[in-house]
């Protein structure tokens, strides 16, 4: 296919828009990370353009104020998404990134705007169970060690400055996670596909069952790998993400 024209992107999206694909997949990163979590993902999966979302207060948006709460994040993101809703789209959210993805879908429906065709949830309990996240009770020294381990797993030797910067982002994100409360589910009109990573010690399949309350159609799938293996866009994951089309 001949490459089609692109249009300038907003700070919320790290890749320019392309006219080559009839659908879009918006990707939401986990706490402490940014759109670079999806840097190894291809430009498209099946016929859907991959569009990683860049939250404020990290990476190339480090100077922007932190979003504060998932509710604020969803409200601001809807404004950026509205010009991009001319094509069918799905949301993918890994770990805590699934929560603002869900809240964004709720707000799109509340405003009468086009919603996602599917919400993919990866390794994250349902919103009313979000307080189970083990990182919410960790000390700063434990969080620092966690960051160092994640960076080393990606083949990078972390420097103190890198970890200091990452820790600042993570602490802000965890504050947002602690403030997040949704007691009563708002069911979505679209299907939800919940992914459990087989070697993930952080989240059990049982802890994911709460998503059954969030849509009429909720499917649970097990994929090979650990909690952070989504970053490599393994073939099994890509095949699953192609199913909504």
Give a verbal description of the structure.
This protein has 245 residues and is of the alpha/beta class. It has a single domain, classed as Alpha/Beta hydrolase fold, catalytic domain (Rossmann fold, 3-Layer(aba) Sandwich), CATH 3.40.50. Helices cover 27% and strands 16% of the residues. The protein contains five helices and nine strands, in the order βββββαβαβααββα. The chain has helices spanning 70-81, 98-110, 140-153, 160-179, 235-241, and strands spanning 6-7, 17-18, 23-28, 44-45, 48-52, 89-94, 119-122, 192-197, 218-223. The strands form two sheets. A seven-stranded mixed β-sheet has the order 4-5-3-6-7-8-9. Helix 1 (70-81) packs across helix 2 (98-110). The radius of gyration is 17 Å and the shape is globular. The relative contact order is 0.15.
């Amino acid at each position: 296919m001949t490459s089609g024209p692109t249009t300038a992107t907003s700070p919320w999206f790290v890749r320019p828009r392309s006219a080559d694909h009839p659908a879009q997949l918006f990707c939401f990163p986990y706490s402490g990370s940014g759109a670079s979590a999806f840097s190894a993902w291809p430009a498209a999966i099946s016929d859907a353009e991959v569009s990683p979302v860049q939250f404020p207060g990290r990476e190339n948006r480090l100077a922007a104020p932190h979003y504060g709460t998932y509710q604020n994040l969803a409200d601001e993101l809807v404004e950026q998404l509205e010009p991009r809703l001319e094509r069918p789209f799905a949301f993918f959210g890994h770990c805590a990134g699934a929560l603002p993805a869900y809240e964004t879908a709720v707000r799109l429906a509340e405003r009468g705007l086009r919603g996602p065709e599917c919400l993919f949830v990866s390794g994250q309990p349902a919103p009313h169970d979000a307080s189970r996240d083990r990182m919410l009770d960790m000390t700063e020294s434990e969080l620092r060690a966690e960051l160092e381990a994640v960076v080393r797993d990606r083949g990078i030797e972390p420097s103190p400055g890198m970890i200091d910067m990452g820790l600042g982002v993570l602490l802000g994100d965890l504050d947002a996670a602690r403030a997040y409360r949704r007691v009563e589910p708002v069911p979505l009109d679209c299907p939800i596909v919940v992914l459990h990573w087989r070697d993930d010690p952080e989240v059990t399949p049982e802890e994911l069952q709460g998503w059954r309350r969030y849509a009429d159609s909720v499917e649970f799938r097990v994929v090979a790998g650990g909690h952070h293996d989504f970053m490599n866009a393994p073939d099994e994951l890509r095949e699953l993400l192609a199913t909504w089309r």
